[in-house]
């Protein structure tokens, strides 16, 4: 008994110590309440079931541990011989059943809330890609579509343990999803390749992004701020490096941001439609090349022997122009050559193709206009 | 019946086993095959465990240290596949082979040659699966659930070998199940009615039906994958008119009953051990049988609770939520019955009982988190996080695996004729018990705090719990070497075991000498009285 008491004190001490050191940031231990009505009711549901389980656990384990301590052969106890009691067995079938019904009611209510459909102020299409998210603002009133990719922004040096890690290690993105506060935002979630899952715990939203299916969800966030999440479905090599950041702003700020974005999109549309000259394209293409291609193919177009092919004088950059476009748009399977068709604008795609055909003494003299890329893409879709 | 008398004639000609390697290659003896299954399962347990330790070593600290994400995914996939199909399932089949004939008073399994075949195709299946690690493009890297289209359109070429390996494992399981059903139906000793069968036999009978029902579904789903990959069909390819969600429906129609395949025999084991060491009959035998059958039935209608986030309609979510919650009722009945068996018993705590008690407590904790996961709205937050990892490891490690260990300690004297080293057994138990909890309990916390599963690297807020979890995993892993030592010592030395080494043990297996003779029950024993 003395020993038992000592153990009890010791475990109580450990428990208090653990709670006091970690108690201040509950998110390390438990689900957070989040910032939407739904995330809060999910949290309440979670805690309700948790405490029900704890209660049942205390009763069952209590009786079990009591028996294990008191009904031991070493204490000279003789075993009883009962092995049946219809009444008891009925009770412990019916009582849990009643508890389940009590839990099922609030659960069904919350579920119905999540599934409630209604008109939304903002609609956003979310498309999962290996391994990035695309956000497209769907709107009937504007011809200029706002769409952009959101990728991991944590530097590779941090992942490789070469430099110190930031507080939001692996949870930073190049460009967050921006939504307004206190407005219903409808989310249409789909995928371009494999199944991903769009999950932001504070919003209480997790929905799979599945190719060929558009899933619908919604959120209404009450507090402005940055909320972070991650892809929650194994989607290949970089599954762990596919964070989600939602930047929730006051409605006016959101409108300003959206207007600026729409303006950019409109300018881009104008650029696509304008008549380009070879020199303009080459100049722009050089910049695009410097940003996206230079790491592998090198500034002198010579590539890296044995790893990345040279472009200078290559069959691709001096051969059939359509093949060249196709490779840049679709990538090359099984190699490091990515598909840039959806990452870059038509203008940039046209520019970089033109640049590659006219740099480093390739001097093909031909060019691809942004509108050619548009045509090429629609031809591929058919 | 003629088959049985034929067996008898056969047995009288030679009583001992053949010598050398051929004994094991060509054996049709249920005890030899049981032993083969158990050793195979243990070696797979160590292999799958090593893969788990690679995972935990990488997750010891944030950042990428040891392996690349690609290899990390291969490790998670291989760990899951090997533990499910290579460790847990064959271990239970091994126990069934050893114990079911002895428990029902049969001379052997009903279909001994098929028994040999169903074991010997397994090493080939797993050799093929393991060989994918050395193939160009690497091993399967899409998780043990191998969701399409990641496993079809985007998979490494080795996926074809994986499919073939799965087919072989499935064939082995189905043959094993047919054999068990045939044995239980035809070879029970006179007087052994169904309601007098030991619960281990009952749970295995029900499990065998589950296997026959769902293994073909698994075979179907991998065949559909094969067609998609090599023959231009589009079952799971949206661009060709198929649906990736179809894959999940078919997979989980197999996958959910599968998780009960891995736990029902454990219920049987624990229902044998607790009464033996409480020196009191099992409480509620009849309700145990009905509860097992209800769990098996319910397991077929709850598969979509693995898919709450794929976007099924509200009514669908409600149905699957309610059906899933219902499983808590028969499972609760089982737990309450075990506790009632202990209550007012006269308990001793030899190693099998320690494992059985730990089973009841820790499996129940896994059951609680399972109930939490059943609540669909909450599942939106839990799904695909470490909370799920913690949940299914609680039911599979201190659940299924602990019950296998309990069974091994309980029947080891019968198998080897020697008592195992009780002190070492207890050391093994306590190290495993502590290791398992240090490993998996903190995973509840990181899961609730938002750490997705199957990621090779994580945010800093998850660092401390992951480190604790990894340390626990290494402790648990290393302590299994103690188990190996105990079994080795017991096979080759140790005090001579009496026919019934446990005071409160019940059942026909204890009526034969230890070690059990190579051929038992050449004349069927008579059964009367209770179960």
From TrEMBL, chain A:
Enzymatic reactions: 4 Fe(II)-[cytochrome c] + O2 + 8 H(+)(in) = 4 Fe(III)-[cytochrome c] + 2 H2O + 4 H(+)(out)
Spans through the membrane: 47-69, 90-108
InterPro entries the UniProt entry points to: CcO_II, CcO_II-like_C, Copper_CuA, Cupredoxin, Cyt_c-like_dom, Cyt_c-like_dom_sf, Cyt_c_oxidase_su2, Cyt_c_oxidase_su2_TM_dom
Gene Ontology terms describing biological process: ATP synthesis coupled electron transport
Domain Cytochrome c, chain residue ranges per copy: 280-360
PROSITE patterns associated with the record: COX2, COX2_CUA, COX2_TM, CYTC
First-level EC class: translocase
Protein keywords: Copper, Electron transport, Heme, Iron, Membrane, Metal-binding, Oxidoreductase, Respiratory chain, Translocase, Transmembrane, Transmembrane helix, Transport
Pfam families the record matches: COX2, COX2_TM, Cytochrome_CBB3
EC numbers for this chain: 7.1.1.9
Coiled coil: none
The protein's name in its UniProt record: Cytochrome c oxidase subunit 2
Organism of derivation: Gynuella sunshinyii YC6258
UniProtKB/TrEMBL annotation, chain B:
InterPro entries: Cyt_c_oxase-like_su1_dom, Cyt_c_oxase-like_su1_sf, Cyt_C_Oxase_1, Cyt_c_Oxase_su1_BS, Cyt_c_oxase_su1_dom, Cyt_c_oxidase_su1_bac
GO biological process terms held by the UniProt record: electron transport coupled proton transport; oxidative phosphorylation; respiratory electron transport chain
CDD domains to which the protein is assigned, alphabetical: Cyt_c_Oxidase_I
Ranges where the Cytochrome oxidase subunit I profile domain occurs: 24-528
Keywords noted in UniProt: Cell membrane, Copper, Electron transport, Heme, Iron, Membrane, Metal-binding, Oxidoreductase, Respiratory chain, Translocase, Transmembrane, Transmembrane helix, Transport
Molecular function GO terms recorded: cytochrome-c oxidase activity; heme binding; metal ion binding; oxidoreductase activity
Pathway participation: Energy metabolism; oxidative phosphorylation
Catalytic reaction(s) noted: 4 Fe(II)-[cytochrome c] + O2 + 8 H(+)(in) = 4 Fe(III)-[cytochrome c] + 2 H2O + 4 H(+)(out)
Keyword Transferase: no
Topological type in the membrane: Multi-pass membrane protein
Keyword Isomerase tagged: no
Enzymatic class: translocase
Chain segments annotated as transmembrane: 36-57, 77-98, 119-139, 159-187, 199-227, 259-277, 289-308, 320-340, 352-376, 388-412, 424-445, 465-488
Family, per entry: Belongs to the heme-copper respiratory oxidase family.
The protein's name: Cytochrome c oxidase subunit 1
């Amino acid at each position: 008994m003395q020993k038992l008491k000592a153990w009890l004190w010791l475990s109580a001490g450990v428990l208090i110590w653990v709670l006091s050191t970690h108690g201040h940031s509950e998110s390390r231990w438990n689900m957070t309440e989040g910032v939407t009505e739904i995330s809060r009711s999910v949290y309440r549901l979670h805690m309700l079931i948790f405490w029900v389980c704890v209660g049942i656990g205390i009763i069952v384990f209590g009786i079990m541990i009591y028996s294990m301590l008191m009904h031991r052969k070493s204490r000279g106890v003789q075993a009883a011989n009962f092995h049946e009691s219809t009444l008891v067995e009925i009770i412990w079938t019916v009582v849990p059943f009643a508890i389940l019904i009590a839990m099922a009611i609030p659960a069904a209510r919350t579920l119905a809330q999540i599934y409630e459909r209604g008109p939304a102020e903002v609609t956003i299409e979310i498309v999962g890609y290996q391994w990035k998210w695309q956000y497209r603002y769907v709107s009937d009133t504007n011809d200029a579509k706002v769409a952009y990719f959101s990728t991991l922004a944590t530097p590779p040096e941090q992942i490789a343990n070469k430099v110190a890690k930031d507080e939001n290690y692996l949870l930073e993105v190049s460009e967050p999803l921006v939504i307004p506060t206190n407005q219903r935002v409808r989310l249409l979630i789909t995928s371009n390749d494999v199944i991903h899952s769009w999950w932001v715990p504070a919003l209480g939203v997790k929905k799979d992004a599945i190719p060929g299916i558009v899933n619908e969800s919604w959120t209404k966030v009450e507090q402005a701020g940055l909320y972070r999440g991650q892809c929650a479905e194994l989607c290949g090599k970089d599954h762990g490096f596919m964070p989600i950041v939602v930047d929730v702003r006051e409605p006016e700020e959101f409108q300003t941001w959206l207007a600026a974005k729409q303006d950019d999109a409109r300018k881009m549309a104008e650029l696509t439609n304008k008549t380009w000259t070879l020199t303009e394209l080459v100049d722009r293409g050089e910049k695009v090349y410097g940003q996206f291609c230079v790491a592998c193919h090198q500034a002198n177009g010579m590539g890296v022997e044995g790893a990345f092919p040279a472009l200078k004088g290559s069959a691709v950059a001096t051969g059939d122009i359509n093949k060249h476009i196709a490779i840049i748009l679709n990538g090359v399977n099984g190699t490091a050559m990515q598909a840039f068709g959806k990452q870059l604008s038509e203008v940039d795609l046209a520019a970089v193709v033109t640049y590659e055909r006219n740099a480093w003494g390739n001097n093909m003299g031909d060019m691809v206009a942004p509108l050619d890329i548009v045509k090429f893409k629609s031809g591929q879709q058919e | 019946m003629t088959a049985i008398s034929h067996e008898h004639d056969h047995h009288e000609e030679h009583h001992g086993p053949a010598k050398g390697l051929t004994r094991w290659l060509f054996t049709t003896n249920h005890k030899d095959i049981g032993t083969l299954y158990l050793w195979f399962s243990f070696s797979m347990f160590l292999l799958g465990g090593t893969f788990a330790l690679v995972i935990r070593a990488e997750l010891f600290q944030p950042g990428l240290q040891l392996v690349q994400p690609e290899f990390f995914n291969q490790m998670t996939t291989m760990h899951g596949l090997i533990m499910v199909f290579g460790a847990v399932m064959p271990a239970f089949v091994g126990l069934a082979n050893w114990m079911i004939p002895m428990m029902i008073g049969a001379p052997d399994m009903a279909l001994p040659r098929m028994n040999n075949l169903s074991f010997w195709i397994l090493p080939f299946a797993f050799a093929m699966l393991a060989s994918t690690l050395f193939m160009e493009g690497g091993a399967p890297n899409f998780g043990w659930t191998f969701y399409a289209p990641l496993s079809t359109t985007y998979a490494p070429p080795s996926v074809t070998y994986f499919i073939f390996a799965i087919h072989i494992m499935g064939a082995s399981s189905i043959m094993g199940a047919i054999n068990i059903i045939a044995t239980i139906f035809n070879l029970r000793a006179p007087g052994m009615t169904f309601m007098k069968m030991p619960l281990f036999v009952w749970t295995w009978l029900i499990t065998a039906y589950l296997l026959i029902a769902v293994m073909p579904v698994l075979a179907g789903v991998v065949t559909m994958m094969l067609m998609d990959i090599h023959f231009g069909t589009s079952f799971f390819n949206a661009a060709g008119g198929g649906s990736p969600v179809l894959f999940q429906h078919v997979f989980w129609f197999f996958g959910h009953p599968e998780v009960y395949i891995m736990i029902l025999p454990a219920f049987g084991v624990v229902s044998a051990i607790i009464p033996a060491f409480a020196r009191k009959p099992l409480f509620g035998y009849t309700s145990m049988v009905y509860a097992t059958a209800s769990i098996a039935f319910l397991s077929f209608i709850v598969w979509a609770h693995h898919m709450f986030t794929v976007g099924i309609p509200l009514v669908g979510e409600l149905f699957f939520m309610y059906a899933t919650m219902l499983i808590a009722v028969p499972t609760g009945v089982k737990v309450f019955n075990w506790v009632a068996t202990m209550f007012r018993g006269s308990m001793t705590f030899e190693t099998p009982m320690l494992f059985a008690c730990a089973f009841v407590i820790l499996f129940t904790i896994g059951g609680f988190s399972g109930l939490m996961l059943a609540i669909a709205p909450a599942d939106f937050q839990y799904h695909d996080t470490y909370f799920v990892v913690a949940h299914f490891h609680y039911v599979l490690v201190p659940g299924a695996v602990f019950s296998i260990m309990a069974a091994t300690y309980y029947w080891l004297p019968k198998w080897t004729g020697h008592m195992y080293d009780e002190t070492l057994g207890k050391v093994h138990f306590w190290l495993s018990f502590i290791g398992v909890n240090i490993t998996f309990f903190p995973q509840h916390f990181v899961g609730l705090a938002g750490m997705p599963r199957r990621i090779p690297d994580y945010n800093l807020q998850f660092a401390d719990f992951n480190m604790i979890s990894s340390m626990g995993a290494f402790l648990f892993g290393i302590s299994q070497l103690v188990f190996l030592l105990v079994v080795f010592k017991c096979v080759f030395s140790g005090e001579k075991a009496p026919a019934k080494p446990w005071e409160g043990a019940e059942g026909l297996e204890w009526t034969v000498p230890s070690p059990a003779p190579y051929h038992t029950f050449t004349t069927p024993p008579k059964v009367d009285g209770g179960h």
